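INTERNAL AUDIT FORM
Audit reference: QA-55
Scope: verify that the stored structure record matches its stored sequence.
Auditor: D.O.
Record contents follow.
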Amino acid sequence: MHRLDKDTSGLMIVAKTNKAHINLSNQIKERKVVKIYTALIRGILKEDQATIDMPIGRSLNDRKKMAVRKDGKKAITHIKVEKRYDKYTLIKVKIDTGRTHQIRVHMAQIGYPIVGDEIYSNGKNEFGIHGQMLHSTILEFMHPITGEKMHFESELPKYFRDIIDKLDKQIKQN
């Protein structure tokens, strides 16, 4: 089914019955489920929008990590800038595929790791938070029984909003 990385907040899909599980699994496999995340990344992303198309597989150096690898599985991540700060960028991320650690690996690979990510950001945690600033914000899919379009949104958790508020105040002071 749909999983979230450890320390990623937000929405996820859970099936109540086997029939629902099969249907939802097929929707995910066929890339019919819309998954949009909000993330705060270290660095200032210059492009307003970008698509990362880099295959991901298990790291050869550390079995607990994933990495961009030529022989990995296809992984596509779309990025849209929401706001730029002095040293950070707030982004929306839509994933077409759902590889393990996909967003975290892709962002680190292009030089913009997710704030608070202990695994892919060299342990840098400027705000002293527990977990990465990655939140599953929107999920859309067809109800597995009725076929009705389902749309769910989740607000950012308090710690995430507090950091964004702090960054917004810094902009106003400058």
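Auditor finding: record pair retrieved intact. The chain has one domain: 9-173.
Action required: none
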